[in-house]
Design a protein that fits this description.
7% helix, six-stranded antiparallel β-sheet, mainly beta, 3 helices, globular
């Protein structure tokens, strides 16, 4: 169930709103009369605009004047049943439509979830949905299965120029992607990684799995301009037995492997390339020594070079490159070009554990990493992030660190930074669990919005630079003016969001008076600034 504060207010008393508005107008007229009475030399004509912006109105008075309205055009959808439902990633595709993906009906047996008027039934499954930017559901796809102990989890999604959808994740036991059924190979009732493709109409085309004797995960997915698909992940290996030591990447034509050389169980990282039809091209091992390595994300630049990120401790060496951790787990960043030639490897972090979350890239092929540092962290020789918390760091396309910003929120401290998007002017908007934060192109924080106790996980931008945010929540919550009623466990949400700092229903990106309510956008002299904030009073 979704409601708004505005709707709630209408259910109380129209008389109260009329009274508030009457008192506000009395306040304004009284102030004007006092000005006239106390002025010796000033005269006011009826055709003069009187600037009342210098007078502080209470929140209640501003609400009465502005009507307590949400930003014009904003919407929010909630999906939830008795199980755990989470939005993991949202993307605006090249066709301008919105795609959202995540997990549905986890931990509650078979249950239903309602996407608009479309009900699906799931049991520890994943979903992918396509909407237009007005919030109309176009189609929903999902995994299925009859085994109540089988699970599928989604980790990432990408859209190619033809509208094909590519997802990564991991699953255990038997799951079906449409008519394609896969059974995990794990002997310990653990997980195998997978990558899958959907058509632009929401039909499953193919599924590729990463088979492990113990456990394995696919963490991130990316697509280049030729529809080649790149997936990163890791698997738990041990050299002592031929079955234990390999991750297998089976296709109809071949089964490449990643192999361990360690007589200890360790997580081994990998990057695999498929073509658009799911035929494997190559797979690289992203380590050569006996330490745990964990992948997190992968992205492609305008030259079809591939950038990967993850975390490591001790020394990380692969493909002729090497770097060393500053203490515990550090973040690494590496690049391989479209000819499969590795270009560089770099890292950042401190004495405690550091973790990346997501990668973004701008029009100059510069790279942005979000994540979390547990303590002070350094990126290169000059970028030092003090204390603990979320961050956004920028690296140039050659791997050199450009700047880093600790994402902080006044007295609220800092949270893990989950995702970021790059605007056309290279400003950055990032999300944590409860905050939306905006940085300029040099990393200086410009503003933040406290959304409340909501778990935001992903955001994307459309061609108008409007944001679309997905995540999940538990218990009844507000997302700004939207009131969300929880259905039992975690419920997912997807929202279209434009900032409206003066609460006049006009998005800041369109508002001619961003700091003063001007809902009608009145501009008598047509000089740009609206009447209520026109500095030259003409």
């Amino acid at each position: 169930m979704v409601a708004t504060k505005n709707i709630k207010a209408k259910k109380t008393s129209n008389y109260g709103q009329i009274t508030a508005l009457f008192l506000t107008l009395m306040f304004v007229f009284t102030s004007i009369n006092l000005m006239l009475e106390n002025s010796d030399d000033q005269s006011f004509g009826l055709d003069q605009a009187i600037d009342i912006s210098q007078y502080d109105l209470t929140d209640e008075q501003v609400s009465a004047l502005a009507g307590s309205r949400t930003s014009s055009g904003n919407w929010l959808h909630q999906v939830g049943g008795i199980g755990s439902d989470k939005g993991i990633v949202s993307i605006i595709g090249p066709n301008g439509d919105l795609y959202v993906a995540g997990n549905v009906c986890h931990g509650a047996g078979t249950c239903s979830a309602l996407f608009g008027s479309n009900a699906i039934y799931a049991n520890n499954d994943i979903f992918v949905a396509r909407l237009d930017t007005n919030g109309t559901w176009l189609w929903i796809a999902q995994t299925t299965g009859t085994d109540s102990n089988a699970y599928a989890y989604l980790t990432d999604m990408e859209i190619d120029s033809f509208g094909h959808v590519f997802i990564s994740g991991y699953y255990k036991r038997t799951k079906s992607w449409g008519t394609i059924s896969k059974t995990a190979s794990s002997n310990y009732d653990n997980y195998d990684g997978f990558a899958a493709r959907l058509s632009s109409a929401g039909t499953w085309n193919w599924v590729r799995v990463m088979e492990n004797y113990d456990r394995g995960y696919a963490r991130g997915i990316a697509v280049d301009s030729n529809q080649n698909v790149y997936v990163v992940g890791e698997g738990y290996l041990y050299y002592g037995n031929s079955d234990y030591r390999q991750i297998r990447f089976p296709t109809s034509s071949s089964t490449p492997t990643v192999s361990s050389n360690c007589y200890n169980w360790r997580d081994w990282a990998w990057l695999v390339k498929y073509d658009g039809a799911g035929a494997i091209q190559w797979v690289d091992t992203l380590q050569s020594n006996c330490y745990n390595r964990y992948m997190r994300d992968v992205i492609v630049d305008s030259n079809d070079s591939v950038i990967v990120t993850g975390k490591f401790d001790n020394t990380l060496s692969f493909q002729g490159m090497s770097t060393a951790s500053s203490g515990d787990y550090d973040i690494f960043l590496a690049k391989v070009d479209s000819s499969h030639s590795w270009q560089w490897l770099t890292h950042g972090g401190g004495l405690s554990s550091d973790e990346p979350e997501k990668l973004s890239i701008d029009s100059s092929d510069d790279i942005y990493v979000t994540g979390y540092n547990n303590g002070h962290a350094s990126f290169g020789a000059t970028i030092i992030l003090a204390n603990t918390g979320g961050f956004v760091v920028k690296a140039l396309g050659n791997g050199s660190w450009e700047w880093g910003t600790r994402v902080v929120f006044g007295t609220q401290g800092s949270e893990r930074s989950y995702d970021s998007v790059i605007h056309s002017n290279n400003n950055i908007t990032a999300v944590t669990s409860r905050f939306i934060v905006h940085l300029n192109s040099t990393g200086s924080q410009q503003w933040y919005e406290d959304i409340g106790y909501i778990n935001m996980r992903s955001l994307s931008l459309d061609s108008n630079e409007t944001s679309y945010i997905t995540g999940y929540f538990n218990n009844n919550r507000y997302f700004e003016n939207f009131y969300l009623v929880n259905n039992g466990s975690d419920d997912l949400f997807i929202t279209k969001w434009d900032r409206d700092r003066d609460d006049d229903s006009v998005a800041d990106r369109l508002d001619n008076c961003g700091d003063h309510p001007n809902g009608n956008q009145d501009d008598y002299d047509n000089d740009g600034p609206g009447d209520v904030c026109d500095a030259d009073d003409d």
